[in-house]
User: What shape does this take?
Amino acid sequence: MTDVTVLDGGLGQELIRRTGNATPKWSLQALLDDPQLVRQVHADFFAAGAQIATANTYSLRPDRLEHFDLGGRMQELQTLACEIACAARDAHGSGLVFSSLSPLGYSYQPHLAPPSERAAVMFAEMAAMQAPLVDGILLETMSSVDEARGALMGTADVDVPVWLAVSVSDADGSKLRSGEPVADVLTLVDEFRPAALLVNCSVPEAVSQALPHLAGVDIPLGAYANGFTGIHDNFNNNDATVDLLKARTDLDPAAYLTFAKGWAESGATLIGGCCEVGPDHIAALSAHFNS
Assistant: This one.
């Protein structure tokens, strides 16, 4: 069996599940209200077998923080989220921590993102805060070539590994959410040389469709799907809540593992979960791939 590094699952949705509190601030709400809970979720993912934790920085974009009158706390919150994840890693005694950089504008809505040149400036600002604190940076849910380009431009000079994760159409995994062929991101791999290329936050079936289009890439390939039924059209503003997004009822740990086995057969060596994938799912992955 090919060696697989097991990633963690969906931190934000796990926090929502445990608190029952779905607010427009999403995972930022728990960081503000209960940092110890954030650490506990990281600890639970490590205990389940995750070898890499993703810090709770996905929601810490400048545009989003400013919307909630928290713009002046950017450095504080970035530092807090990274330090919490690193403390969980250290207590566990092994593993790595990657920070997360999410799309500017709104997730899944690449047509609302700023152009790459402008986005790169904001990504560089965030990356400079995160890089000294973590083992790597994960560019998540990039849904168009230009959106991914801006993130890669902004992280081009950091001193830690940068992974690029792209999100594909739930209806057709051969395409990014922008409608562009997912294979078009291979030009960015050639240009920017990220340390890994992953497909994330799409339904598992779409991830399975996407991976063959990326096979043969000369950097590690990865996959971590979400457990949503799909993305609601109204999930396109800072005040939207995840109540708009419905969780599947047919994606228990055994079912998720079945998809993951297929991803490994398609060449993925970095496998974890995104939204609605919890510690039990990660435990199933770890038991299979790392037993």
